[in-house]
Amino acid sequence: MPVSVRKYDLVVLGATGYTGKLTAEHINEFLPDLVEKLKKLSPKRLPPSIEICVPMAENLNSLARKTRVIITLLGPYAKFGTPVMEACVKNGTHYLDTTGEIYWVGQMVRRFHEDAKAAGVILLSQIGAESGPYDLITFSAVSKLRTEASLKTKELIVSINESKLALSGGTLASFFNMYESIDQKTMTASLQPWALSPISGRKAPNAANTFGLRRDKTLGLLSASSPTERQDRALVHRSWALLDAGNLYGKNFFYNEYQKAGGVVGGVVAKIGTKLVGASLSSAILRNLIGKFSPAPGEGLDPKEEKNFNIEIFAVAVADEVGPSETRALSKLRYAGGTYHITAALLAQGAATILYESGLVERVGGGLLTPAVIGQPYIERLRGVGLSIDTVLL
């Protein structure tokens, strides 16, 4: 069935989980024109508890054939995501997820990108709090340098100023599954800077000092303690490659991500803490211990409390130019809500952009793409629901 005449515009899989409920709530609040069609899928449920459970391939194919866009929140994605993506590619259905399982994303790139490209199917993976905001703020800063100063970017420096995280049971289950199902060699390879990129960029030296600190003239004191730096970098570097084979951002582009440091001691402590968390997740004994005191899948912090969190991320695009001057663009991303609320917004508005942005599919083509490839229309939709990215030339 042609995508434009399918029965359903959008299906949300896993809508009774923690993130799924928030996504359904976001759709109910900001995309009311979709709500009636979602209700038809599960008429006995009241929104936002809209869920379709389709574990069998034949059911997935049947659903995909009559749906334009599928959002899946059924994780761990390494267990449940592959058949959903496969059904979408096979049946010409656009797809979004919020995985942080980067090794799985790499597998999906190798398995489905070319087929999706040929079919004109948009696949958006890893677009939630990890790594959607970082990809979009990079796109905004780099675009400002290019359009207003006619300059390419040699480095994108991110400072996470505020992003409080209280992990849900589903997120923890995905982390645990990741460490239990793959070996260290595979994990290390999947976290390399250009692991998701079809072409390799430059090798950049570590800009932080021995203690994991770096001082930037615009962003101040930074700590190399972001727990998702390598996952975010890999996705951003994929955007670099997909956008005119690196020419749009610049051939010397490289992405670095930090947390804002309140002081030298605090920055060092944050770096040590990140290392300890990674070590804990690598240990089966410690994972079991953490699991005993963690929320079950589908549960998490009270959403009303999580909504009171705030996210603030700054990014500087440093121009690739010769001479003593150093032109920069500064982007500021702000959102009133925590990481799960911003994830809901990114998923729902990503789907809406695919559904309603005229000519988008023809412009970007298909394949396993990134938020930056969708570009400014996505940013403008997010602005309309309170996720702002403001950029100036310095």
The arrangement of helices and strands along the chain is EHHHEHEHEHEHHEEHEHHHEEHHEHHE
Helix-and-strand structural type: alpha/beta
State the helix count: 16
| Global morphology | globular
How many domain regions? Answer: 2
Range of helix content: 40-55%
Family: Belongs to the saccharopine dehydrogenase family.
Pfam families: Sacchrp_dh_NADP (PF03435)
InterPro entries: NAD(P)-bd_dom_sf, Saccharopine_DH-like_oxidrdct, Sacchrp_dh_NADP-bd
Protein name: Putative trans-acting enoyl reductase
Question: Summarize this, please?
Answer:
This protein is an alpha/beta fold and 394 residues long.
How would you portray this structure in words?
With 394 residues, the protein is an alpha/beta fold. The chain folds into two domains: 169 residues, NAD(P)-binding Rossmann-like Domain (Rossmann fold); 206 residues.
